[in-house]
Sequence to fold (563 residues):
Amino acid sequence: MNNLSAWERMEIVHNKNRPTVNDYIPAIFTRFMEFHGDRLFGDDAAIIGGIGFLSDVPVTVIAQVKGKTLDENRRTNFSMPHPEGYRKALRLAKQAEKFHRPVICLVDTPGAYCGIEAEKRGQGEAIAKNLAEFMTLKTPVVSVVLGEGGSGGALALAVCDELAMLSNATYSVISPRGAASILWKDGTKEKEAAELLKITAEDLMRFGVCDKIINEPDGGAQTNPEQAADSIYEYLVDAVSRLKTVPMEQLMENRYNKFRKIGMFTE
Amino acid sequence: MDIEELFKVVKARFTDDSHGSSEKKEKTDVEIPQDLLFKCPRCSGVFYNDEFVNNKKVCPKCNYHARLTWQERLEMTADEGSFIPLDENLRSLNPICFPRYEEKVRKCIDECETNEAIVTGECTIRGYRCVIGIMDSHFMMASMGSVVGEKITRAFEYATKKKLPVIMFTASGGARMQEGIVSLMQMAKTSGAVKLHSDAGGLYIAVMTDPTTGGVTASFASLGDITIAEPKVLIGFAGRRVIQDTIRQRLPDDFQSAEFQQECGFVDMIVERGMMRKRLSNILKLHGFPKEEKGK
Fold:
């Protein structure tokens, strides 16, 4: 049971030693090879994609890349993808569908990048397309939020059959700082906003967004990265083997309904 | 009209304020009644409101197509008396117990005469039947929460079942922060419904109006078979200020305009308000939908 507040979890997530996909991918998958480019514009280093074995199952891996050093972060744009990153993700997802490989998405982003070039190349369109196409992608899709799940930039890799979150990960429609500056015209009140927005894994279980919490070692994944990787591995093996047995039509219906039923209103 | 006459009109409005309006507006010496003049947010031109309204709320100088209420949009778009609303009674709850959210929604319901930021229904446009959705930016900047997401999803599901085309007039500030993660999921939900409608062969025309931004741009608004925009409206993903803060540069004035988006390849055509009905009905005709006789 995780008794930490949303803010405390965010601090753990921002720990500079927290494992990233660069640690997890070699620990979880074997014979992983990276594929580059969206075939339309370029290659976005904020998203790694490729294929490898999960246990003995070939899978496609699509992952958002946080850096640990400033240099790494410059290269991966602090894990804020451009449209070409999302389009690469979709290209690889379609490839996975063709070869009947399950897709594993590892989500870790503050959000989709906000900049002139991103707008010019259609950040909105790129995300929208992923939402629509992943919804009917005819192969199992499992997403795991490793650290930050930042709004639409995270959702673009999180239209899936099952969503898991590491126990300290957060997933939110807006960054607490963004919310604080809109709400109280004061970005420094992000601590209050973090609690208000209900962004922890337990909160998201209650809303039916998150299906499984993967426990991190005490104090956070950085205290024992191997153990964290093992827990993710075990979950993924289990999820993929379960989802592979579901008939395709049923899988599609379940995925649609997973999102279809989210909403709170009266009539 | 010269400036003297303008002052006369202003004065007349001020003194005429005794009857009717019980709203307590705090007045200062320089205040001009809000409904007298229209100041264009694009070109800063100032015009008599009557002139602006008679021009379908299009700026006479720069052609900026200003925001409409859902009633105005419906009246300009649908054949008279043809509109049958869908899911009118949906009301949002407060999923993350956001302070004063219910109060804010209630106020918008009173002011906008609709339960939420989108009105959906079935209508004909110059005799062509379709499912229509109209977002009203006066209702919490038409942000997308549970009800907006649910109504759009149902509209597409209804259209899929009835084999009808869908026309969405989009306008939004994005996902509704006040509903937390639940609002983000509406992006996936609506996009899924659009996809199923599309896979079933359905036609979807997105008409982007001022402003189409954020999570709405990043979901159903960008998924039309045909994307139309009104002239000079704002279309984008990230807000202008957010981008300026990120890159620390001033952005060009036309950044994220309809014209900019067309140049970037994301808008099929820019259509003037006065031509919209004709253009929409021609598209429906070109897709083989039958024209219904009046009174049918």
